[in-house]
Model the fold of this input.
Amino acid sequence: MAGKDIIMLSQDELKRLHIIKKTLEKKIRQKDAAEMLLLSSRQIRRIARRIEEDGDEAIALRLRGKPSGRKLPMKIRDMVIKLCRGKYKGFGPTLAAEKLQETEDISISDETVRLWLIESGDWQKVRKSRGHRQWRERKHYFGEMIQIDGSHHDWLEGRGPKCVLMGYIDDATGNVFGRFYEYEGTIPAMESFKRYVKKYGLPMSVYLDKHTTYKSSAKLSIEYEINRRQPLSQFERAMKDLGVKVIHANTPQAKGRVERLFRTLQDRLIKEMRLKCIKSIEEGNRFLNHYLPVYNRRFTVTPKEKDNLHRKIPEAVKLNTILCKKTERTLRNDFTIAHEGQLYQITEGTQARKVTVEERINGSMLITYNDTRLKYREIVERPQKKTKRLNTRQPGRKYIPPANHPWRYFRVNNNKVKTGS
Done:
C-alpha cells in the first residue's frame, strides 16, 4: 500500500465490513445482513459490489478527507474573525452570531463562530466547575413570586457614572423587569417597585436578600418584645401595607434565578449598550424600555398554570403615600420638629403630640398627622446661644487687687476687730 493514504475505519464501519464479507462468502443471506445493519437489500448489494472492486477501503465514506460542499468561503471566515476582533470584541460566540445576523446580514450558526474563534485563538472553551445545589421547582403561576435584587456593576464601561441595575424576574416565567439607579437604597427600591406594579400589578410575594434596604438591622426593643413584633425596614413596611409577602433568602445561591439573570445581562446588555454608545443612566433606562420586551419574548417560558396572580391596584390605595419613607417625630412645645439634622416649624395649630414625616419618591417631603397634611417651613437660621464670659487673666499670674478694692477695706477692719484696737 505504498504511496497510498492510510484510511482509519470506525467501529461501525468495521462491523459493517465484517457482515458484508460474510455475505460475500455466502455464509449469511443478504436479507439477514440488511436486517442486522438496518439497511435495504439493495444497499447491501451496492456495498458488496464496491468492496469487490476497490477492496476493504471502499467501506469508508467516499467524501472522507474531502472538503464539504457546504463549507463557507474563507473570505467570510476572515471577515467574521475581523469583526469579532474589532466591532464585536469580547462578544461570546452566541451573541456574536446574533449581531452578525441582525447588523451585518451574515447568517451563520453560533457553533461555526465558536469553532472559528477557537481555531484563531480568540476564544477559549472553559469548563466551569459547579457545586451541588438542591433543585427547586419553579412557581406555577405568573406573579406568584418575584425575585428582586440590585446589581452593582460598571454597566456603562466608563462612558458614564457607575450605577446599579434594580432587577426583577418572575419565578414562574422568567419575565424580566429592570431599571438603572445611582445607588441601591430604599427610594430606588420603592420607585422601581412602583413602576413594576403599574405595569404588571401587585405580586403575591417578593424574594429578597438581607440587604439593609429590604430587612431591618435594628435590635429588638422592649416595646417590640412586649407586642411580639419584629422591627420592619421601610420597604418591608410598604410591602405589608400593600399586602405583599416578603421572603428573605439566607444565601445568594437561594435566589439563583436573579443572580444568573445579572450574569447574563452583564455579558449581553453592556455590549448592546456599547453598540448604541449609551453614556448616561437616563439613556440606559430609555434603552431598557425597548430591549427588555425583546429579551422577554425570546427567553421567557410558559408557566405550569396559565392564570395570572398579579392583583390590580385598588382605587383606594395611594401608592405615593405607601411607597415612601415614613418617620415618626415628636412635636415640641414650640411646634417644631427635628429631622435629619434640620429644624422645621409647623405653621398651623394642631393637637398632635407626634407627627409623621414622609419623604416621597419624587424628592418632596410632607409632614402629616392622621393622614392630614400640615403646613410647615424650614428654619434656616437658628438663634445663637449666649456664651459665658471668658476669663482674660493670664494663667499662672497672681492677681493683685488695687488699693481701693473693697476686699482691702474689709480685711483692714477685720484685723482691727481681732486685735481689739
About this structure: The chain has a mean pLDDT of 84. The CA atoms of residues 341 and 379 lie 11 Å apart.
